[in-house]
Design goal:
Low-confidence stretches: none
Order of helices and strands: EEEHEEHEHHHHEHEHEEHH
Number of helices: 10
Oligomer: single chain
Largest sheet: 6 strands, mixed
Structural class: alpha/beta
Radius of gyration: 18 Å
Shape: globular
Strand order of the largest sheet: 6-7-8-3-9-10
Helix content: 25-40%
Length: 258
């Protein structure tokens, strides 16, 4: 799981800790995600999974009293420094949340939003990129001819794929997905999982999921967090069938309390 000097990992956390006031939510976490891979982050509720994602794209900075120690690199570049543009970082690192959150715009304007923010004004280029992102998200065939309709008129599963298309439109290096299927029905969940499989190789995906079966189905690597610390990380088949840590085995068999 270690990147070479010529090709650094897509994401690398080096001894990262985080405090909400006096409460320590992440404890000395070191983790790397190679380019083009899907890494699932699993663990009990409240173990720091979502916090870890929010450290990578610096969403935690919205919370008063937060303090972060350690280093987070995207493509080899430290992204925690004050000189780093949050706008530039968010172009490189997209985010999809548990609840679909389409903007109160049309389907087209939702997907074009990030492109316009970064200054794209050419109608032909906007149309081409919007269509490409909707195709990547597996939604184009369902919405073609309906792009002017309100995004919030879509079903929940379609809204989530729209949010993924919105994130992909700006061609990020990394896509963070925080339990993206938790609010969806089984059919919509299957479509999102198929989408994650198609994204493999083209994007690096860091997926938080409480669903062990989902982690086993879609990820190349899996990391287990427990009480803010990293227990174990490795290739998904190995972690699920021959875990190295006793705590991993306890969690996978339902014997580990939060």
């Amino acid at each position: 799981m270690t990147g070479s000097a010529a090709s650094p990992p897509a994401v690398a956390l080096d001894h990262v800790s985080l405090w909400y006031g006096a409460e320590r939510a992440l404890q000395d976490v070191s983790l790397t995600v190679e380019s083009g891979q899907v890494m699932a982050v699993i663990g009990p509720s409240g173990c720091g999974k979502s916090t870890l994602l929010r450290v990578v794209n610096r969403l935690v900075e919205r919370t008063p009293g937060v303090r972060v120690a350690g280093r987070v690199a995207v493509g080899g570049e430290d992204v925690l420094g004050r000189e780093v543009s949050l706008e530039a970082l968010r172009r490189r690192v997209g985010m999809v949340f548990q609840q679909p959150n389409p903007f109160p715009f049309s389907i087209y304007d939702n997907v074009a939003y990030g492109l316009r923010i970064r200054g794209e004004r050419d109608p032909a280029r906007l149309r081409a990129r919007v269509q490409a992102a909707l195709r990547e998200a597996g939604l184009w065939d369902e919405v073609r001819g309906k792009l002017a309709r309100p995004a919030r008129a879509l079903s929940g599963g379609q809204q989530q794929r729209l949010c993924i298309a919105r994130a992909l439109a700006v061609e990020p290096e990394v896509l963070l997905m925080d339990e993206p299927t938790a609010a969806l029905d089984p059919l919509s969940t299957a479509r999102i999982e198929e989408l994650m499989d198609r994204l493999r190789g083209r994007y690096t995906v860091l997926l938080v999921t409480h669903n062990l079966q989902q982690a086993a189905r879609v990820s190349d690597q899996t990391a287990l967090l427990y009480r803010g610390g990293l227990v174990e990380a490795g290739p998904t088949p190995e972690l699920f069938t021959a875990p190295k840590a006793a705590r991993t085995e306890q969690y996978l068999t339902g014997r580990l309390e939060g």
